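Action item from last week, closing it out:
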Amino acid sequence: MPPAEAQARGAALLAPIALLALGPYLALWGLPDPPFPTDPGGILLFLSAFTVGVVLHEALHGLGHVWGGASWPDVRFGVHWAALTPFAECTVPTQARSYRRTLALPGLVLGAGPLGVGLVTGSWPPTFYGFLMLVAAAGDLLILWILVGVPADAWVQDHPRQVGCLVVDDAGPDPPPPVSDDDLPDATAGDSSPSFLQLLLLAALSA
């Protein structure tokens, strides 16, 4: 799907992620007062931590691709500027089991990890930080959902143009050739997917 559409669909997951991530903390410890930093130093520290988290998110994707058999030159980092969405794209096929692990890695390390620490210790900053990192991983959750039913040993590659992936070959011991942008057909006219405005309304309703 296009980056802007993926971003809006991910935003629609805000409410369930908030319920599952913040609900247990609020039930056990209540809402701290104040819930957010109010002094300039605290605000700057939090924004810096969030920025570092976004960079680490993509670095963990790259690490996952290399862990799955790719090399660092096979991983391309960049930003979809139209949607202000950073990405780490693997330009060669890896097996679906490794691809799923790559998708889940940032959410587990940067989201579930701090969230668990905050829940156990009653500390609000790591809890809220973990929540934000899980929101940042919402697009990864969408792709994991799309991959349900794909065999673990099938060969999968990041889509060269959009958010998501291509299943490029059935199970086999050897990786198939990479799929390049030139191998793909032109964008199909008359796409029936929801408009960006409809997706924004969906995200607002969920929030």
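Closing note: The two ends are 22 Å apart (CA to CA).
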